[in-house]
Design goal:
Elements lengths: L9 H8 L3 H8 L7 H13 L13 E8 L9 H16 L3 E8 H6 L2 H7 L4 E5 L8 H6 L4 E4 L10 E2 L3 H15 L4 E5 L5 H16 L9 E3 L7 H14 L5 E4 L2 H13 L9 E5 L13 E4 L2 H16 L16 E3 L14
Parallel strand pairs: 1-2, 1-3, 3-4, 4-5, 6-7, 6-8, 8-9, 9-10
Antiparallel strand pairs: 10-11
Helix pairs in contact: 1-2, 4-12, 8-9, 10-11
């Protein structure tokens, strides 16, 4: 058996493990020919010996935008996904990389040997989109040192592989703005509990109310428990809120698609925004400024986040450190004031 103090090579690793040098080489390259268990064993020993194989390849690296689907989620590139996929594509184009798009249900991703599957598809690194606490496959990617980065959310256990904004602060700032305008009865619509961004923004909403001395009324909060996409949820939740809480003067929604459905519900109720009810949303896409009325939003730099995530993955593919992006928080949200927020009306809705 080789001494740990000796210079580590593929051959010393193969001697220590009792496998061929070719097997070690293929395992370190994430070859689908090698079982997941053996890959983990070989890569674990390589880490312990601080061994990094030289990268010799003429193939152009491929970065994958991995879209995770959930039950009842429509298969569509809605504005958020179109924006972040565009950010990954922009980086790949600038760096002359290959890029592909892979869409699969999160349960399927959790069951499969993804490192083997990615190797079969000649994918060298992944920008993971639409992650949540249900995304359990990141542990296996970490075990085998597969390059990846999560965008906005991960499974809650891998913040070192996450690029996002400070969502709690963003929710706080949005609520503070509504409070400064004069609103005290602020309803909120948020994304499913397994999606961290919505829960973090909801925590910021509650903190802002408490600091302002406004009681936190949990009957004004609606969490999407049924559908990941949320159009029907937001439509029905707004109607229910207005029936049960006619004193509500402002609505804070945690994503663009929820805002679209909320506007639809308010139109059906015959309510004018912002004269009778103010609306503040998250995300800012090109069409947001052309809605009626143009929405006041917290702008999340989704395209730039995706671009930087692709950059980080590319560095990991090349075996480079990423010391300039320590931790999860990387970019900031920005409040964009337009026309959908005004002073609170007097009296209850009729």
């Amino acid at each position: 058996m080789s001494s740990p103090s000796a210079k580590t090579t593929i051959y010393t690793l193969s001697d220590e493990l009792g496998v061929s040098a070719a097997t070690v080489s293929r395992a370190l390259a994430n070859s689908p020919e090698i079982s997941a268990e053996l890959r983990r064993k070989i890569r674990r020993l390589a880490r312990e010996r601080d061994f990094r194989p030289g990268v010799v390849t003429r193939r152009i690296p491929t970065i994958c935008a991995l879209v995770q689907q959930y039950t009842d989620t429509p298969l569509t590139l809605y504005p958020y996904l179109a924006t972040v996929v565009g950010g990954v594509a922009q980086y790949a184009h600038e760096e002359n990389l290959e890029m592909n798009l892979h869409i699969a249900h999160v349960d399927e991703l959790n069951r499969r040997d993804l490192v083997r599957e990615f190797a079969r598809r000649q994918i060298d690194g992944v920008v993971a989109l639409s992650s949540s606490t249900r995304s359990q496959f990141f542990a296996s990617l970490d075990e085998q040192d597969f390059p990846y980065c999560c965008l906005l959310v991960d499974d809650g256990r891998h913040p070192h592989k996450l690029l996002t904004i400070d969502n709690e602060k963003a929710g706080y700032d949005a609520t503070r703005y509504l409070l400064t305008v004069g609103h005290r009865r602020i309803a909120v619509l948020t994304t499913p509990v397994h999606v961290q961004t919505g829960q973090q923004r909801l925590a910021g909403y509650r903190r802002a109310l408490r600091e302002a001395g406004v009681p936190v009324d949990e009957t004004l909060a609606r969490v999407n428990e049924d559908k990941h996409f949320g159009l029907e949820f937001a439509r029905d939740a707004v109607s229910d809120l207005l029936r049960r809480n006619p004193d509500v003067t402002a609505l804070l929604v945690m994503s663009h698609n929820l805002a679209i459905a909320a506007l639809h519900a308010l139109y059906r109720w015959g309510l004018r925004v912002p004269d009778q009810l103010s609306l503040l949303s998250f995300d800012d896409f090109p069409e947001t400024a052309f809605l009626c009325p143009p929405l006041t939003v917290v702008r999340v730099p989704n395209r730039e986040l995706a671009y930087q995530a692709a950059r980080r993955v590319h560095r990991l593919i090349r075996g480079l450190s990423d010391s300039d992006t320590n931790g999860a928080i990387y970019l900031e949200g920005e409040l964009i004031v337009r026309e959908s927020v005004g002073p609170p009306r007097k009296g209850k809705l009729r």
